[in-house]
């Protein structure tokens, strides 16, 4: 059932919470400011205090967001989005850096400095590949918990001198739960004590069977340090992507996911967004989680301003009124009034959840004390 806290109800009516409590007391109900009451009671109270009530269900507010299907004719191939996962120190960051450096054309603007936590490279087989640099499994899990499926392919990095370790197994489980195919990158093969064969057999225990052992999981021996076989890894990704037949409709309003967000001193809230459907344009009104904004600028992975970003394209979005959270889904809406309606609603929900949580904690503390 729908409920609302006394505090929230008072806020929405711009009344003092004590007045609401007093009214309830007159009716014989003893409540605290953090207590929640059902929507019917709240409506009666509000009307008694001279307010008009408009009850809005979630389904109304969120309607139309994220649910328009595309027809087959509208779908166009899009680049795969790849996340690199693996055990601590197995070389995830080194591999991401090596791929980016190897792909930078000399003299290219921006050089090798990374501007955002995601970038695109060109595969030796043609086509683009988008890499996102997730700070770790925790972020991946958090995004998944919010229903954001950002990754098409996981590259599982396993150091050949160390073998399968706890976070290797975790990554396998994450990928499996998200139904995302793995490509195994056996890293650090430049090391004298590298034992790539051992990695292959160890993986069998976790039901990852690489091609050279008769399975269907693509594998590549690489060295991030010596820059060995990076092209082969990109080829494997492109081949896997072809199997997945990844498509999206670029000709619709954009949807995407916030990969990271921060408050920048000079530029205000900055969100790195992976566009997943449609095309995001400068000037669009966007909502992400409980925040909204008008897109003031879009900046690509090389630090260049762009006017639009299509499917699988990572961009920095400037223009949010406040900083959204990593994992928030982004949608374009028709106007600012609609954006406000949605984000007001979500902010209320956030507050109510927080209030309910602290009420539960207080309740259990009281129980513990008595
Ligand atoms: P965390 O982010 O801490 O989980 O580590 P990571 O997986 O990102 O590993 P990182 O790239 O930081 O590399 C860890 C160490 O391994 C560093 O000292 C790298 O220089 C080294 N390293 C990474 N790749 C290779 C490689 O191919 N060969 C050798 N010899 N060393 C490597
Ligand atoms: Mg790292």
TrEMBL record:
Localisation per UniProt entry: Cytoplasm
Residues bound to GTP: 86-93, 133-137, 187-190
Segments forming domain Tr-type G: 77-247
Biological function: One of the essential components for the initiation of protein synthesis. Protects formylmethionyl-tRNA from spontaneous hydrolysis and promotes its binding to the 30S ribosomal subunits. Also involved in the hydrolysis of GTP during the formation of the 70S ribosomal complex.
Family (UniProt): Belongs to the TRAFAC class translation factor GTPase superfamily. Classic translation factor GTPase family. IF-2 subfamily.
Name by which UniProt lists this protein: Translation initiation factor IF-2
Gene: infB
Shown residues in whole-protein numbering: 358 to 727 of 937
């Amino acid at each position: 059932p729908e409920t609302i806290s006394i505090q929230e109800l008072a806020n929405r009516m711009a009344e003092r919470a004590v007045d609401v409590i007093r009214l309830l007391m007159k009716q014989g109900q003893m409540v605290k400011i953090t207590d929640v009451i059902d929507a019917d009671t709240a409506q009666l109270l509000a009307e008694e205090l001279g307010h008009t009530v408009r009850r809005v269900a979630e389904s109304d507010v969120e309607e139309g967001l994220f649910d328009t299907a595309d027809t087959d004719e509208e779908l166009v191939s899009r680049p795969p989005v790849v996340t690199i996962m693996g055990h601590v120190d197995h070389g995830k960051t080194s591999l991401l850096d090596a791929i980016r450096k190897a792909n930078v054309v000399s003299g290219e603007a921006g050089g090798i400095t990374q501007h955002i936590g995601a970038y695109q490279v060109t595969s030796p087989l043609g086509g683009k590949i988008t890499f996102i640099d997730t700070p770790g499994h925790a972020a991946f899990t958090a995004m998944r918990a919010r229903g954001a499926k950002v990754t098409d392919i996981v590259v599982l990095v396993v150091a050949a001198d160390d073998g399968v370790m706890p976070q290797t197994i975790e990554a396998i489980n994450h990928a499996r739960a998200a139904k995302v195919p793995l490509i195994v990158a056996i890293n650090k093969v430049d090391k004298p004590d590298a034992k790539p064969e051992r990695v292959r057999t160890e993986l069998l225990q976790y039901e990852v069977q690489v091609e050279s052992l008769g399975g269907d999981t693509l594998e590549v021996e690489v060295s991030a340090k010596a820059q060995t076989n990076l092209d082969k890894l990109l080829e494997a990704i492109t081949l896997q992507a072809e199997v997945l037949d990844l498509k999206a409709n670029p000709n619709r309003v954009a949807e995407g996911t916030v990969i990271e967000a921060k408050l920048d001193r000079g530029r205000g809230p900055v969100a790195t967004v992976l566009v997943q459907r449609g095309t995001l344009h400068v000037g669009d009104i966007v909502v992400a989680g409980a925040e909204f904004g008008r897109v003031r600028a879009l900046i690509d992975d090389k630090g260049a301003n762009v006017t639009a970003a299509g499917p699988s394209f990572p961009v920095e979005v400037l223009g949010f009124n406040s900083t959204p959270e990593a994992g928030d889904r982004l949608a374009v809406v028709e106007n600012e009034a609609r954006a406000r309606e949605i984000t007001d609603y979500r902010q209320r929900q956030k507050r109510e959840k927080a209030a309910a949580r602290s009420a539960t904690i207080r309740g259990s503390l009281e129980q513990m004390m008595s």
